[in-house]
Design brief:
Elements (H helix, E strand, L loop, with lengths): L1 H20 L20 H11 L3 E6 L5 H11 L2 H10 L1 E6 L10 H14 L7 E5 L5 E5 L5 H14 L2
Parallel strand pairs: 1-2
Antiparallel strand pairs: 1-3, 3-4
Length: 163
């Protein structure tokens, strides 16, 4: 008597699991922006800025050890609102200084990051966001600010309007 009851329950369980497993994921909305393109050298960013007439947003981060750096990336730079804003208003450059051996950068990239830091981040602040004119003049320096991508882009607009 137990065997038929067990078989029926097991069968029902499998049917429910199969139905759940093959359910389609909801379609992604069209609001998902392509990831932002980040320059990895200051020279490349400045060349692009001169060609487009847009300011450079240079970011100095410690992607695997600096909590505010990680939060800035997750809450602002990885969001579609920031990506859309940056694509039309900024030239992006990222200079990362990871500490973990598994995240070690190639020697040439480390050299480029150190050269950018020698020019723009002598204090060694992390995270540091530097706004530069297309000619390379420092317009403003800031860091992590809570509030998400929309609040951050509003703040960047305020900084850019002051210069």
């Amino acid at each position: 008597m137990r065997t038929p009851l067990f078989a029926a329950a097991f069968s029902l369980l499998l049917t429910g699991t199969a139905t759940t497993s093959f359910a389609q994921a909801p379609a992604q909305t069209a609001t998902t922006a392509a990831p932002a393109t980040w320059n990895t050298t200051l020279d490349a960013a400045l060349q692009q800025a001169k060609a487009t007439g847009r300011p450079v947003l240079a970011v100095f981060s410690g992607s695997d050890w600096c909590k505010p750096c990680i939060m800035l990336k997750q809450e602002v730079f990885d969001k579609p609102e920031f990506t859309s804003y940056a694509q039309s208003k900024l030239v992006l450059a990222r200079f990362d200084f990871p500490r973990s051996k598994k995240n070690k950068l190639p020697a040439e990239q480390t050299k480029q990051n150190e050269q950018a830091a020698a020019k723009l981040n002598k204090e060694g602040s992390f995270p540091l966001v530097v706004l530069l004119s297309p000619e390379g003049k420092v317009l403003a320096k800031t860091g992590y600010r809570p509030g998400g991508a929309t609040a951050y882009t509003t703040y960047l607009n305020t900084l850019l309007a002051q210069k």
